[in-house]
Design a protein that fits this description.
With about 900 residues, the protein is an alpha/beta fold. The protein has six domains: about 90 residues, BRCT domain (Rossmann fold, 3-Layer(aba) Sandwich); about 90 residues, Rossmann fold (3-Layer(aba) Sandwich), CATH 3.40.50.10190; about 110 residues, Rossmann fold (3-Layer(aba) Sandwich), CATH 3.40.50; about 100 residues, 3-Layer(aba) Sandwich (Rossmann fold); about 110 residues, Rossmann fold, CATH 3.40.50; about 120 residues, Rossmann fold (3-Layer(aba) Sandwich), CATH 3.40.50. It has 27 helices and 24 strands. The strands form six sheets. Strands 2-1-3-4 form a four-stranded parallel beta sheet. The protein has a four-stranded parallel beta sheet with strand order 6-5-7-8. A four-stranded parallel beta sheet has the order 10-9-11-12, sandwiched between helices. Helix 5 links the parallel strand 7 and strand 8. Helix 10 crosses helix 12. This is DNA repair protein Rtt107.
Length: about 900
């Protein structure tokens, strides 16, 4: 919404809208008054917040206007499916003279394209569909007309006169390359569009080859200064103009009870200062966790933490408290990783990680250092061969070059953030963790990952924190207690609301990579889930409102009754199945048949939903047109048949005719998937290797390490024609005389050795490779890695540590294919004969001699032959002299 004018519609398009406005830095008092007047003049009803700035009852509202999702009642609004929308929604609706769909105007940071209105201009149809689909999925909108509300035009050139016309009418409109959307979707974050913007996109300029500077400061990576003033508070909590707490008009804790945990490990003076700030901000300090609304602690353990988490209270760290005091704005502690309490002693999955950081500066670097420490990994300022990971904002630095030489994993900050959020080290095969867009400094998007609530709930279970505290805390117990058998299905509205909010607090997925719209529906369903009476004997001590457990026969009887309660749903289901003709195993109905009564209920439910849904949800007009293929169909869809389980994963190489275009490849994938075969591009997971002949392509050589079934492309022809896979033996590849003459082996024998080796042909081997070698370093690194070895980039650094190979105590049958004792003291360098490579040979020989090993500089053919034969054999024709 522009804010300078108030539009009035003769149609009063907002009749029936009951709205509230959440104040924030972007919504000052004057702007808020204009929003209220604009809506009221067009038929809406304003429902003010209470005296504490909170929503009394979220169900009183139909719409909530906010520029951020960081306010205390956001989760309750999402649970109740009340749309939270930005003021732009009002402007768009008034321009069209009807309500816009609220989906494209959410302030939820997970929908990072929510402020994007897209128009595509003269780009290939396939790319256009992919971009539109990605933008719509991430909260954006698409306009087929070049109207004044378009924010981004996607084009390959700026030659079209319409681009200049659009920018003249709307100076804020940007003309960007399609690469920007591709990089944003790969990272799952909205990065700066300036390097992709016409008239001079930096990513197309080959002259830019130096380090990438940040285009903008990142406020999400806020970390208070570690220097403290005389009272023990970080200096930057207070602005210079307000050096003392008494001069600040804080109101973030208005009417709230706050408890400061003992595990914060702060002195009495600092605690007193914090308590004074909380009181000056309108709050009250309490020592009783049952009466507290907010709990500030350092670690994710202790009875108070468990109670506060299960009761749906705000639980945050001291850093979160500092952040709110500085901004004087309430924020969700789960929005930033370090604003939520950390695991005591870190996470077990990070114990073996040694992490260094490069190209992140200022607060972003400090934040990442603290995150590494909180995870339980070891942070090192200097990079060495002992490091396991290097986190970098871009790859243009000496540290990144050294990491590649030493085979240290080079990742962006998303890897450590999402590993911490999910309490599990994420696989590096996910390309989002190794993607570094050109001319972009990823320090701009640090700190935008939040706590994953579903994972947090699972982590609570694994740590034994899944129950409420067992001391006398009746309030918490009542909030979590499920209805008893005789009252099941008759709980009061207040009980359901309390149970739903508590469940949502621990189950909602707060990560940015879950689909937010799905999460909302999931949260709504959670509020009405049927429940069972919990077993009383699962708590360590009796609750205040329960009879203490007894001993002897009576205690045994109670335990048996409780166990029966747990088994009741399973027993009921079994009895229901037994009533069917044929019993449980051979019942009349199958799983894929729909019960008539159930079908009728679904039809009625669908009618109710369609009647209740607002007309705005179905509108797609010229301002927000959605292509037909992306619209939701009004007609009921037929139930899809479940796909068969995946029996094989097929890797296709050298057969371009089968994947000549996207449509042909998509049809092939779908047809194979219906046969239980998944078409993949990853050699590491292939169980079927399909090619027109035995080849020395990267995919073919790498895939042989797993011992897959190797078939001719005639296998595919049979699948396409008969819609079912043939016997693989009739389509085997590579056992002919021609293959024997060209490569010196039969594929059947190679596969036998590969299965004997079990990906361990090169286990214990350290092989070096030059950067300019034909085929590229990454090709040979993949082949060596899939065969169990390590491949390092060689740039002449003699500080590398290598050791002679020795027979391993757990060596298996693969040892007979590893070349024997004569290979144990040989150090290999794979190289070409270019000038930039030959100058490195002398240093390599010096490195080998330093470690009492024999240097052997070889052509790439040596490795390819070993990998294709699944056997290490030396031939002098592979050696390079010089």
């Amino acid at each position: 919404m522009a804010g300078e004018r108030v539009q009035k519609s003769p149609n009063k398009i907002f009749v029936g809208v009951r709205f509230g406005v959440i104040p924030s830095e972007d919504l000052d008092e004057e702007f808020t008054l204009k929003i209220i007047k604009s809506l009221q003049d067009n038929g809406a009803e304003y429902v003010p917040l209470n005296k504490h700035g909170r929503l009394d009852e979220v169900n009183l509202y139909t719409h909530i206007i906010a520029t951020t999702s960081d306010f205390p009642d956001y989760d309750n609004a999402a649970d109740s499916l009340i749309p939270v929308i930005t003021p732009t929604w009002i402007e768009h609706s008034l321009q069209k003279q009807k309500r816009s769909n609220t989906r494209g105007f959410t302030p939820d940071p997970r929908l990072f394209f929510s402020d994007v209105v897209l128009h595509c201009m003269d780009i290939p149809e396939g790319d256009k569909d992919a971009i539109i689909g990605g933008v719509l999925a991430m909260g954006g909108t698409y306009s087929s007309n070049l109207s004044g509300i378009v924010t981004h035009i996607v084009a390959l050139t700026e030659d079209d006169s319409r681009c200049e016309k659009a920018k003249t009418k709307n100076p804020q409109c940007k003309v960007v390359l399609p690469h920007w959307f591709d990089d944003c979707l790969k990272l799952g974050k909205k990065i700066d569009e300036r390097p992709y913007t016409f008239p001079d996109p930096e990513i197309l300029n080959s002259e830019f080859s130096g380090p990438v500077l940040k285009h903008r400061e990142n406020q999400d990576a806020f970390v208070p200064s570690r220097k403290t003033d005389s009272e023990g508070l970080p200096e930057d909590v207070f602005p210079a103009s307000s050096p003392s707490p008494s001069r600040r008009a804080l109101d973030i804790f208005s009417g709230q009870n706050v408890k400061l945990s003992q595990d914060l490990d702060i002195g009495l003076r600092l605690r007193g200062t914090l308590e004074g700030l909380i009181r000056s901000a309108g709050g009250y300090v309490t020592e009783n966790i049952s009466s507290a609304d907010t709990y500030v602690c350092q670690y994710r353990d202790g009875s108070d933490y468990i109670h506060a988490s299960h009761a749906g209270k705000s639980v945050g760290s001291l850093l979160w408290l500092y952040h709110m005091l500085k901004k004087n704005t309430w924020t969700n502690p789960m929005r930033r990783l370090l604003h939520y309490p950390i695991p005591r002693n870190g996470m077990d999955c990070f114990k073996d990680c040694r992490i260094s950081i490069s190209n992140y500066t200022g607060d972003a670097r400090t934040y990442l250092q603290d995150l590494v420490a909180a995870s339980g990994a070891r942070f090192t300022g200097n990079l060495s061969q002992n490091n396991t990971h290097l986190i970098t904002a871009h790859t243009l630095s000496d540290k990144c070059d050294a990491a590649r030489e030493w085979n240290v994993n080079v990742v962006n900050h998303l890897w450590v953030e999402e590993s911490y959020a999910k309490c599990e080290v994420q696989t590096l095969s996910n390309p989002r963790y190794t993607h570094f867009p050109k001319r972009t400094n990823l320090g701009e998007v640090v700190g935008k990952t939040g706590i994953d609530r579903e994972v947090l709930r699972q982590w609570h279970r694994e740590q034994g924190l899944g129950k409420t505290p067992t001391k006398a805390k009746a309030k918490s117990n009542m909030q979590l207690q499920e209805p008893s058998p005789q009252k099941q299905g008759q709980s009061t509205e207040q009980e359901q609301k309390s149970f739903g909010s508590s469940l949502a607090e621990l189950t909602n997925d707060g990560s940015e990579h879950s689909t937010p719209l799905t999460s909302k529906a999931h949260r709504a369903r959670n509020m009405t889930l049927p429940t069972r009476t919990p077993a009383a004997n699962k708590t360590a001590a009796g609750k205040e409102n329960e009879t203490p457990p007894t001993t002897g026969k009576r205690g045994a009887k109670e335990r048996a009754v409780n166990k029966m309660h747990d088994l009741a749903p399973d027993i009921a289901l079994y009895e229901k199945e037994m009533k069917r003709k044929g019993g449980v195993i051979h019942g009349r109905r199958r799983v894929n048949e729909v019960d008539d009564a159930k079908k009728g209920k679904e039809v009625n439910a669908g009618r109710k939903r369609s009647h209740v849904e607002s007309e705005e949800d179905d509108e797609d007009d010229e301002g927000e047109e959605v292509p037909t293929k992306f619209k939701e169909k009004g007609k009921a869809k037929r139930a899809k048949h479940p796909l068969p389980p995946i029996d094989h994963r097929m890797l296709l190489t050298g057969a371009i005719e089968y994947v000549a275009d996207d449509k042909k490849e998509a049809n092939l994938k779908a047809q194979l998937r219906n046969m239980g075969i998944l078409l993949t591009g990853n050699p590491a997971e292939a169980t079927i290797l399909c090619a027109p002949k035995v080849m020395r392509t990267r995919k073919f050589v790498a895939a042989l390490a797993a011992g897959p079934l190797v078939v001719h492309t005639s296998f595919l022809d049979y699948c396409i024609k008969h819609d079912s896979p043939p016997p693989t033996a009739s389509h085997a590849l590579g056992n002919d005389r021609d293959t024997k003459e060209r490569f010196g082996f039969h594929i059947s024998k190679v596969i036998g050795r590969a299965r004997m080796n079990q990906r361990r042909l090169l286990r214990g081997w350290t092989i070096f490779c030059t950067e300019a070698v034909n085929g590229g370093f990454d090709t040979y690194k993949e082949i060596v890695s899939l065969n169990g070895g390590q491949c390092f980039l060689w740039k002449g650094r003699e500080s590398v540590n290598v050791t002679k190979r020795k027979p391993l105590p757990d060596a298996g049958d693969e040892s007979q294919n590893q070349g024997g004792e004569e290979e144990e003291d040989v150090l290999y360098l794979i190289s070409g004969t270019g000038k930039n490579e030959t100058v490195l040979w002398g240093k390599f020989r010096a490195l080998a001699e330093k470690h009492d090993m024999r240097p052997r500089i070889v052509k790439p053919d040596w490795l390819l032959s070993c990998a294709m034969a699944q056997q290490v054999e030396w031939n002098e024709e592979y050696e390079l002299e010089g």
